[in-house]
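batch job 7 of whatever, protein = Serine acetyltransferase
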Amino acid sequence: MTFLARLREDLDAARSHDPAARGTAENFFAYSGLHAVWIHRFSHRLWLRPQWRLAARLVSQFGRFLTGIEIHPGATIGRRFFIDHGAGVVIGETAEVGDDVMLYHGVTLGGRSLAKTKRHPTLEDRVVVGAGAKILGPITIGADSAVGANAVVVKDAPQHSIVTGIPATNRPRKPSEHQPAVDPAAYIDPAIWI
């Protein structure tokens, strides 16, 4: 996929996930979540070359300075990833984020160990994470799940789950709660599951 095609895809994802999005130009220039993702993609490409890892870290820190969003260059991010509002988002080095994932502000994908192993979470495709949620450790949040605002998640959640609370528990997501994120009229805020 070309750089321009990926850029268009990200802009389309922002427009489909944010009812406040007014147009491509505004999204391109004013959405810090998009800027953070684009900076991450560049720093991640550098990170994949061991001789460029210092440069990758410097680029990612510059991105943090510009956007208020910290994404370690070692994190693996899928397509059409969208961070709404963005302030205070932290994504650790070994985190893996699938396609069509959406995070709100204040989300942490953090570690619980200092070991140099997989220590950050994996979010499978189409996961939505509400504002202030903390997902910690080498756990997996299954595809098509939603994590409620301010949840503290330290255990795996299967596909099609609603994950809420401190410590978080999960329940199956009802068919009526599987509204497509691309339909703004059917948007469901994950904070409603608190």
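notes: The mean pLDDT is 89.
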